[in-house]
Design goal:
The chain is an alpha/beta fold. The protein has one domain: Rossmann fold (3-Layer(aba) Sandwich). The chain has 5 helices and 12 strands. Helix 1 packs across helix 5. It is globular, with a radius of gyration of 18 Å.
């Protein structure tokens, strides 16, 4: 099935992608870590591989690429400027600054939705009291994707949705709620894997499914969206 979606939106006047300058693409990748104390944290199983492959594919297209990565043990692709962050709030600060002068955003990072309400200065010693149970108060993290999408002003914004089961309804709701141009739906089989199956859902209702493809191949399809921007 071919992707017959909307053309990626035109960049606003004054975009750095015009003239002889290369288009500037921002990519986020990897998990975030939300620390409980100096040695413990909340996180997830994201390896960052999909985001790194998007950054690599964009650089190979001749784009200027800023990769903002949470903790990931992957080599920085050639020609890519990499910024390392740890928490969701740090990712928001870095991505907001990078996106101000960019033409497109690929938000592939698996950002933690919640963080501990309080980070302890010393090691958490709940077990020392002999209790069989303990609890951690959590507060919601900022929604990095929604925050940046509100400032897109015609620029391309692509989000990701990892869902278990039939997640298309939830992915479409996320697409509309956050006013994205596309959302890439996958499932937990993509975690720490070199291959993935995705559905690319467009804001006009278009769908393209890529079954069991190398993440490198999926990345090239996604980067084509930025390449089509006028």
């Amino acid at each position: 099935m071919s992707l017959e979606g909307p053309r990626p939106p035109s960049r606003p006047s004054g975009s750095r992608g015009r003239g002889r300058q290369a288009r500037h693409v921002v990519v986020t990748a990897g998990p975030t870590r939300e620390h409980i104390d100096p040695v413990r944290y909340l996180s997830n199983e994201s390896s960052g591989r999909m985001g790194f492959e998007i950054a690599r594919a964009a650089a190979e297209r001749g784009f200027r690429v800023t990769l903002i990565s949470g903790p990931a043990h992957l080599e920085t692709p050639r020609g890519v400027t990499r910024l390392d962050v740890t928490s969701a709030r740090e990712m928001l600060v870095a991505a907001r600054a990078a996106f101000r002068g960019a033409d497109a955003l690929f938000m592939a990072a698996a950002v933690a939705d919640w963080r501990p309400a309080r980070r302890l200065a010393g090691k958490w010693r709940a077990k020392d009291g002999g209790r069989a149970r303990a609890q951690i108060d959590l507060v919601r993290n900022p929604d990095v994707l929604a925050t940046l999408a509100r400032t897109k002003r015609g620029r391309l914004v692509v989000g990701f949705a990892l869902e278990t089961g039939n997640g298309e309804r939830r992915a479409l709701a996320k697409l509309r709620r956050k006013k994205l141009d596309y959302i890439v739906l996958n499932d937990d089989s993509a975690l720490n894997a070199s291959r993935t199956t995705v559905s690319i859902l467009g804001s006009d209702g278009s769908v393209r499914r890529l079954d069991d493809r190398p993440k490198k191949a999926v990345a090239r399809v996604l980067v084509d969206l930025a390449g089509q921007a006028t």
